[in-house]
Amino acid sequence: MRSPLVVLAGLAGTMFSRPSQPHSGSKAQPLPTPRPRMRDWRTSTELPDDEAIPAFRAIKTTGVREALQFLNLDAGALEVTLRGYAPGKRATLEVRSGGYRIAVKAYNEPPDDEAQLYTALAGGSGGVRVPRLIGYDRALSVLALEWLEGATLQALIKQGQGRRAGELAAMWPRLVAALDVRFGTHHGVNELTAKTHKYADRMGAADASLGTTASGIVRRLESTQPAEGPTRLVHGSLYDRHMLDMGTGPGLIDWDCFGQGAAELDAAVFLSVIWRSGLRHERRDSSRQAAVAFHECTAGLLDEDALAWHRAATMLRLAHKKVRQRDDDALVSARSLVEEAARLAAAAG
Q1: CA 162, CA 185: separation in Å to the nearest integer?
Q2: Are 226 and 305 in contact (CB under 8 A)?
Q3: Nearest 5 degrees, angle CA 5-CA 100-CA 175?
Q4: Which DSSP category does 123 fall into?
């Protein structure tokens, strides 16, 4: 969703401790100048009618405070912003109450593994910050997380600070090898190859020539699969918008797709996303600077053939997402992504 949705709720609720108390590092950010008063969720029709997400049903029925009692929100003005939404799957809300700012993530089913992950990472380490878990309501499939403040790496690249973005992103693959987190979905090459078949089929349904090219790339990827080595924690969607510049290092948010996989997977996602960003002329130089800095800072950590393979698979994924937009400009971008996937697949193995 490109334009955040802002509403106000005014119900009182008492339960558990204030959200900033579990850890001294998990205090929410101070509020800026108060914003104009908006409608209460209870009378608003703007909250998506999504029966698959239990928290939405509860909020529409009783209001934010009553539905999310475990947050023990202040009795004063309450501001809620819908920051992200995948219909039928999940949503991210920014909740501001008094001097607190919290990220609330609502799902269609209990995110037990993600709650466990935030607990295991305990705010991050090695200069990489991860939100702390403030609370978890399993019945509503809702997580409450510390709000991390900072410009996204996507914003840095737009501003011409590509090298800074690349250096910050490179801190994650350097750190993760030392983390002992051994649970989560397996993101192996067989699973990824199966997904590329789906991407090619769906692209072919939208554009026959594009599908033919993508299918050829998939066959190449099948024949050059990198060996499955030791797996480690992977973020799974290391987009430039999921990493923040927090001054002393990066913050890493939105762990919905985390799991176990090769180090090259996360690196491939970041490099592919900033390559896509570079398709826009005004970001080309900055995106290239980010890629160069990332490669320099991860020298010796990654297998180049495996990285090319994972990047080719990721390019097909990004192209598939473009095709789903169903417009001519998106199709042009998809072709560029598939062409790059072909180049990378040829370099793999």
Answers
A1: 31
A2: yes
A3: 90
A4: T
Please, what's the b/e burial string for 64-75 (b: 16 or more CB within 10 A of its CB; e: otherwise)? bbebbbbbbbbe
C-beta separation of 111 from 143 below 8 A: yes
**Cβ(130)–Cβ(252) below 8 Å:** yes
Q: Is 97 strand, coil or helix? A: strand
- φ/ψ region of 182 (left if φ > 0, alpha if ψ in -120 to 50, else beta) reads alpha
The single-letter code of the amino acid at 111 is P
The pTM of this model reads: 0.85
Q: Are strands 259-261 and 185-187 parallel, antiparallel or unpaired?
A: parallel
Q: Nearest to residue 80, comparing CAs of 163, 129, 133, 142?
A: 142
The continuous run of DSSP H or E covering 151 comes out as strand 151-152
Q: Is 149 helix (H, G, I), strand (E, B) or coil?
A: coil
Residue 24: what residue type? S
CA–CA separation, 54 and 107 (whole Å): 8
Grouping H, G, I as helix, E, B as strand and the rest as coil, residue 23 is coil
**pLDDT (tens digit per residue) in 135-187:** 999 999 999 999 999 999 999 999 999 999 999 999 999 999 888 899 999 99
Of 260, 237, 236, 116, the residue nearest 186 (C-alpha): 260
How many C-beta atoms lie closer than 10 Å to residue 112's C-beta? 11
Beta carbons within 10 angstroms of residue 61's beta carbon: 11
